[in-house]
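User: I've been going back and forth on whether these two constructs are worth ordering. Before I decide, could you fold them both?

Assistant: Sure. I'll take them in the order you sent them. The first construct and its structure tokens:
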Amino acid sequence: MGFKRTEGFRFTFGTPIAAKYTVLIDGKQQTKHACEIIDVSPHGMKMFSSHEIGENTNYLVQLELEFILDEVLIKAIGEIVWKKKYGGKYQYGLIFENQPGIEKLIVSELKIRRKKEVSRK
């Protein structure tokens, strides 16, 4: 899997954010797991999971993610564009496609989060 990022910004968290994902195979929910978000942009994210998400060339494998950047629960569908083993976990790069409402919500939540972080300092 090869992928070159082209988005304008990516927000990296000092401490990864806890999240959940459900594996979708051909749109059908499979298993739910915890994960940690390392960084996020309006178009995708990098995350850690202790579970390996198998690649299946016969079926479309996606992740339905649930996470909170500041206050609002965000639900997005991501496609895995790359994967690598990292210690005892797996690191994944995901892309969100054709979800303009999610893009706007991520930008809005990141702005609010960053303002709060700056005001605390």
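The second construct, handled the same way:
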Amino acid sequence: MPRNRSVFPPTMKTLAPLALVPLALATLALGGCASKEVRFASLALAPSQHIASHYASAVVAAVTLPSYADSQDIYEQKADGSIVALGPLWADDPSRAMTLQLSRDLSAVTGAKIAPEPWPFRAEPDARIDVRMDEMLATATGGFRIAGQYFVAPENDGGDRARSFSISVPLSDPGSAAAIAAARAAAVSRLAEQIVRKGLR
């Protein structure tokens, strides 16, 4: 019975394993060069004061953002007016994170039952809050700015309300993602207080 013979000549049998060495080294090199993503989250802030709301409950619609801010990139504005990604990323989708913080801050300030959409309770909310931003970024002047409009639509009691807002918070360390995250949290908290004072009373 004939013996099984390799299809490779002796020289190719020797070279075949060696040919895999560059591929293995390249794979190791790519693995070693892979960089870890750096992400930042806005920390929750304690409400500075209590403000009574006319409504016992309210639902907060998802905050809408300009296209550049509706991604996980953290943006800053340069002196020439250009808006560029800083490099680090937000820890969560900005719209979702700001909607959750706004709901939490509104509830903490008023003591009312306030939650983001979809509404989690059986009884319908007394009002709906809709925030639409056209600015949300670190500015070239060393601050963090949010601007846009918010709308309050009562279910039954009271008239509809629409207000514009423009809130700027100084950055403790311009160009720092951590400082931008802290400033965003402070700006959203200020917005919550403004909505309560001018939209929920």
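Notes on the second construct follow. The first helix runs from residue 10 to 33. Helices lie at 10-33, 94-110, 177-199.
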